[in-house]
Amino acid sequence: MTVQFKPAETFRDMFNFKKSPEDILRFPFPFPEDEYMYSVNIEPHVKGGPTAAFQAAFDIDEHYIAECRERERVLKEDPKRCQVLPHMATAEWDTLELIMESLASDYPEHFSLSKAGDVWTWVNRPLGIHQTFTFGKAETLPYGPFEYITRQVQGDFTLQDQRDDMLYVDGGMVTTQADWSFEFNIGMSFMEWHGPVPVAHEAGVFERALKYLMRLQYGQPVRRLNWTMTINPRLDTSPENYPVWGPDRTTVTPENVGDKVHLRVELQTLFRLPRSNAILFGIRCYLAPLNDLVKVPKWRRRLHRVLRGLRPELAEYKGMTRYRQTAVDYLAALDDGAPTSKGIAPEIDKLEG
Amino acid sequence: MSDQGIKSKPTYGKIAGDKAARYQLLLVEGAEIPAEVLAEGVDPSAFETWTVAHASALPAAPMMDEAPGTVRPFRSASHMFSALEERLDRETMGLRFYAVGAEPFLWDAFNIASAAGLSQQEMQFAHVGPKARRIYCVHCRTLMDGVTTSIVTCTGCGAPLFVRDHFSKRLASYMGVQVDAEAPGEVPAAEELYK
Ligand code: HEM
Predict the structure, then answer these.
(1) Cα distance from A195 to chain B (closest Cα, Å)?
(2) Which site among B166, B169, B171, B177 would you substitute to test the A interface, given the most A Cβ atoms closer than 10 Å to its Cβ?
(3) Which of A29, A232, A291, B158 lies deepest, with the highest CB count within 10 Å?
(4) Looking at this predicted complex, what is its ipTM?
(5) Coil, strand or helix: which one is A122?
(6) Which residues of chain B, if any, have pLDDT below 70?
(7) Domains in chain B, CATH or no CATH each
């Protein structure tokens, strides 16, 4: 099945964003149970999985072209959303190779890569790109290799250097983030950049996650799901632009809650890179309004129960305090109380309603 | 409000020295080493020490000896930092680097030492002096020194900023985030917290 790209979509201003029924059913719904708490929810990043979003190393969907254009806009406004520290040059090429090879093999109808020694030719049909360059020679590309390739994939990316028994975030392309500042965080250690997260440090989550990541093997990527909520389908919810999007949180009413409030899910992937021994972290962001999610009976029951029971520290951290009750009330009316099965799969092939 | 529970907020100890060090360099943001910053049994005559006199009438090069036990005064912290890069460039393995002073001084020193190739395991920091913070406005990137209150107006973009405990060593700063971004005008009263 080939996706129909929607290049006219926007993730700001008038918010011209709509999910097809297939796009709703492939949503990586993040709750395997009726309650949610932080945990080391890491599993092998292998193809297949509960929805179609887990089919590829780097998932491409119907929003691909529009999201690449949104990234281009953010970078024009704020070029520092992409930075890589000088000692990460090898990791940049590792990233370019991994993403190009994965896209070409997962989506041969859209991307192709051919190599004649070090001279590579990259074709990206949806974006109309045809580029011949020399692997390892940055001057043969219009941007640095990391920026070049991450401009052509959905989702944010960061590069972690591993040294002194620690991971440091020493590079990134961060234009669709859930309220954290890359310019502020660049250079931080794993524990420092997770500093603001409540409860999880005390529960030992970060200590165990870090130990796990330091042993991550080349060729055995892993993934996890993370979530928050965003008002309107806005990709750039950076702290830099908080004065721009913050007021949206006061606009939620019982009448508009289903359209306005979006579940924001990050399909996070972690790859050990071969030459640099760095770790590439992919943060692939998916947005779905409550109105779309409630078309899946299991998801509407579960989302209601998770939001109703969410610990206040987590709700506060995720910025949901102002509109959480409105969302819970809306969902409560749609929860018939029937039991839900474990796992995140929608368990239907066609949407209701 | 005083503990925001943010783990990037640095913690400090005393200068314990390192018996295995080949050489030890201590930077002090003041004219003398405050006795309380040294761990028990540490003898500062083991360190080459740089101090800040906060005075312009120092001879250009009052004391150039580089040896354990020497004390070299500078006119200001900036004056000291301008000499530090060159000093560290001449060092080799086995140097231990210590700094004593207010927070922005410590992390400015840290950044110069990091750029010279030292790792944090080779450094020790002791915090003395005012608790005033350097704030980075996350919206417009203005840096503000000497912030003592829980909320401060950004001198760059005018936003009333909440002073978070989230700290960036690279920027030697805490993050300031607009406190009334969601509901413009709803600004709580500022409290004097960082004196
Ligand atoms: C190594 C790459 C990773 C990077 C660059 C990264 C980065 C971040 C950042 C920037 C935040 C936001 C912190 C803030 O409020 O400023 C965050 C939140 C979080 N991270 Fe990570 N992270 C990584 C890996 C992981 C892993 C492996 C786990 C596994 C447990 C994890 C668990 C979390 C959790 C639970 C939160 C809070 C999310 C929420 O409630 O919205 N992270 N991460």
Answers:
(1) 4
(2) B166
(3) A29
(4) 0.96
(5) strand
(6) 1-2, 60-64
(7) 23-127 (3.40.50), 130-195 (no CATH)
